Amino acid sequence: MSRVPLRWRAVLALLRRLPQGALSRLTGRLAELRLPRFLRSPVIRGFAAMVGADLAEAAEAPESFESVSSFFTRRLAPGVRSWPEDPAAPASPVDGVVGAVGVVEDGRALQAKGYAYRLDELLGTSEAAEAFQDGRFVTLYLSPRHYHRVHAPVTGEVAWARAQPGGLLPVNDPAVRSVPDLFVRNERLVAGILRPPGAERLGGGQVAVVAVGAFNVGRISSAFDPTWNGPPPVGVTNRKGRRKSESRSYDPPIPVDRGDELMAFHLGSTVILLFADAEGEVDPSVVPGAEIRLGQPLLRGP
Fold it and tell me: Cβ-count burial of 162 within 10 angstroms (0-12 exposed, 13-18 middle, 19+ buried)?
């Protein structure tokens, strides 16, 4: 706690006392305001320069974005990301910064030094958490400059999903290092992917993709099940009045190929990946604090 700047401790203390959901929805409405055509290029270019986003990687020109929100959910230009040659190798579902990496122990994963959280609380059920006992976890943080769509890290089928209500505190480094159980406090959307049997599968037969909402909008939309989003601009999370979790099971499951879009953040947040098995080694490039790109290998064989 002593390493967290006093300014951030004060900000977090204040936010705990404020209506995080309502304020985030207000920010979202402001970000979705339609820009006049003559303002689009200067506003988007100025915003990109302020946060450090790379406009050269966007599939569209700055003047194509009707709002700041549409720029946050921009698509990447074809060919700017690649995926591992090994089809069984899990890869990063996002652009971001690596947070904690490790093995699940006693049903807990590491948030930051001195802080761990329970998987059953993260996923919402002990049954879902049981599949990931002794497995691996990787935490990836998305800042405002990053690409905000979340893709499938492996090929398989989405068999279940869960929307878990909660708070919307920031998930940046000061918050991660100072707020216990931050990821299980915040609102989140979880997708459980079952992988096909047969071939060797690094990370085991099941992967959970946990999208954690954060302050400022906090909305996460679903690409694997668009019916869950409701009328635009509503997403699955940060809905006014939601107090209870919502689970969905898919029969038949929804097939996804590695690289298919799963979700989108409407402003930045964090993705936690859970692998059902600790098989294989974490790629040497996946270390806390390192920049990571969509499609970058996460695990490799011995």
Answer: buried
Catalytic residue among 95, 222, 277, 283: 95
Spot the catalytic one: 151, 222, 266, 277.
151
* Stretch 52-77: mean pLDDT: 94
Write out the two tokens for 174: 């000061």
Q: What is the pLDDT of residues 8-44, one digit of tens each?
A: 777 777 777 777 777 767 777 778 889 999 999 999 9
Catalytic: which of 67, 221, 269, 283? 269
Our CA dihedral for 94, 289, 57, 30, rounded to 10 degrees, sits at: 70
The pLDDT assigned to 175 comes to: 87
Cβ count near 187 (within 10 Å): 27
Q: What's the pTM value of the predicted model, to 2 decimals?
A: 0.92
* Partners of residue 273 on adjacent β-strands: 138, 209
| Tokens encoding 59 | 């599939």
Q: Is 269 an annotated catalytic residue?
A: yes
- Residue 151 annotated among the catalytic residues of the structure: yes
Q: What is the pLDDT of residues 151-177, one digit of tens each?
A: 999 999 999 999 999 888 888 888 898
pLDDT for 226-265, tens place per residue?
999 987 777 888 777 777 899 999 999 999 999 999 999 9
Distance CA 118, CA 108 (A): 5
Who's near 205: CB < 8 A, 6+ residues apart? 194, 195, 197, 276, 277
